[in-house]
Fold these 2 entries.
Entry 1:
Amino acid sequence: MNARALALRTGAVLGELIAAKAVGNRPITLVGYSLGSLVILEALKYLATLPPTKTIHLVQDVFLFGTPAPADPTAWTSVRRVVAGRIVNGYSSSDLVLAVLSRTSDVSWSIAGMEEVHVKGIENFQCEDLGGHAQWRWKVGKYLEQIDGHHWDVVT
């Protein structure tokens, strides 16, 4: 099983855990980059399959950076309803690793981690100074500060 397939399966498990309130009985904020953001997106897709009464107040905000998934409006519209607050898509058109890997595995030229997602309620944040895919790890904290205006403690 490749890393992408594992991320998709892990996302479904994370969605089940969130729905079961295994992480507590309060709204959570999810932050991820690269395959971690794919895990989060898949968890949100799982939650979107549940009735709204089962998903209300589970997820507050979501920040995704360099997401190796299509910028397909249908999928992003479905996940928008399960997030009470913000969904931010951090993207960089200079992420060539993401371009090659995502376009060969998804057979899609429209990659969320490389461009805006055109869905009402999705905020897009261009990460202009990203030097390459490996830099997401070091830059996410800085981008969160730019998006929200305050310091975030980012666990890597």
Entry 2:
Amino acid sequence: MPMTTLQQLLMRQEGTGPTKDGRFFPYLDGVGKWTIGWGRNLSDNGISKEEACMFLSSDIADAIDDVRHCFSCYDTLSETRRMVLVSLAFNLGRERLSKFVRFIGAVHRGAWDEAADELLDSKAAKQDAPARYRELASMMRTDVSVWT
């Protein structure tokens, strides 16, 4: 869709704040308000539920890409176990997920108890998000989820 002249004017006037590789990052504007993109005031306006859902959908797509990078067996897994992997990638990102070497190996072998144990043995499970990782380990071990 072509940009309107009003959009062009506001984009030039508002600036973009810090960007990296074409991505936008929050910044403090001239009056100390958290802003993103072209003058989107996060401090006062936040984001709508629709915008949050759009971000979530985009982040899920990124997480699935990360999982496919680390797990060649992704498409052969049950929906529950695919959900576990996507949740991990969503939480950890590709770089940190790829460091779960023993977990990745266990998943590729279909060693579900071992994979669950490896999750529970992680710093993420012990310190960062214990309840989340207990749930994910249980889902990996039993292939049962209240979500499916």
